[in-house]
Design a protein that fits this description.
The chain has seven helices and 13 strands. The strands form two sheets. Strands 1, 2, 3, 5, 6, 7, 8 and 11 form an eight-stranded mixed sheet that branches. Strands 4-13-12-9-10 form a five-stranded mixed sheet, with no helix packed on it.
Length: 262
């Protein structure tokens, strides 16, 4: 780490206030030029600990930057990760207040629900599939508390990997699910298709992202636990949404999921 404990505490406070007041801030990487990924994960963990102390619970984890295009854009060679909390979860088709977010976007993802624990190192795709109980079509609501999404890797990591919400559709037992790499998704906004992608866009196979997560979290002493969910990364680009938009993702072999912004 390159920042002092006081600087990391200040960074965490700035992000908390940005989220609380729905007022984005300048990039932390500009405000604190020494900020590196290790500092950023410490900032993320500090804010998660504060939310847990306030009564939230961890329901799972998310992986970001799983597409080659996004990693190239930010100049990094691996994904990042964040936490999913119970107060971030919305019902399929339910209305969500757009004004609670700074600049929300939506991403279609294949959500995993675990039946058995996963702990790295050495976790592979087959280990993930063996440990998975079911999968579901999902929309991740991503948001940046950094103004205009002008983020570096450190900025998004500190900001809980830009995660803000999760909407899951119906669960399909993994034994009845199609090949997840071959699953395609059409992302619709107000009935118009805006993007199409496939499971193979996520590190070649969505389970590869879950394996990466399990192996990476081992360094933090964290295990992926039974019952937890994992968002492995987006199958498509992430369009902006606002009040009046209905976002829907239609997945081959898995069904559909939607959210209405009001």
């Amino acid at each position: 780490m390159t920042l002092t404990a006081e600087q990391r505490a200040e960074a965490a406070w700035l992000l908390r206030m940005a989220e609380h007041h729905v007022q984005p801030i300048d990039p932390l990487s500009a405000l604190m030029p020494g900020l590196d990924p290790a500092d950023a994960y410490a900032v993320q963990q500090s804010n998660i600990a504060r939310r847990l102390a306030d009564g939230a619970t961890v329901v799972g984890h998310k992986v970001g930057l799983t597409s080659a295009a996004m990693r190239e854009l930010l100049g990094v060679d691996e994904p990042d990760h964040g936490h999913l909390l119970d107060d971030m979860v919305h019902r399929d088709g339910a209305p969500v207040l757009a004004a609670r977010y700074c600049a929300p976007r939506v991403e279609p993802e294949i959500c995993f629900r675990l039946a058995r624990p996963l702990r790295g190192p050495g976790v592979g795709v087959e280990d993930v599939l063996d440990a998975t109980e079911a999968v579901a079509p999902a929309l991740e609501i991503v948001d940046s508390r950094i103004r205009d999404w002008k983020i570096t890797l450190a900025d998004t990591v500190a900001d809980n990997a830009s995660s803000a919400g999760l909407v899951c559709g119906s669960w399909t037992p993994l034994a009845q699910a199609p090949d997840l790499a071959a699953v395609t998704a059409d992302l619709m906004v107000n009935g118009e298709r805006v993007a199409t992608g496939a499971g193979r866009e996520v590190l070649g196979h969505p389970a590869a992202a879950v394996a990466w997560l399990a192996n990476t979290l081992a360094a933090f002493g964290t295990t992926l636990r039974p019952g937890q969910v994992v968002l492995p990364g987006a199958l498509t680009t992430a369009p902006f949404v606002s009040s009046g938009h209905k976002a829907e993702a239609r997945f081959s072999g898995l069904g559909a999921v939607s959210v209405i912004f009001v």
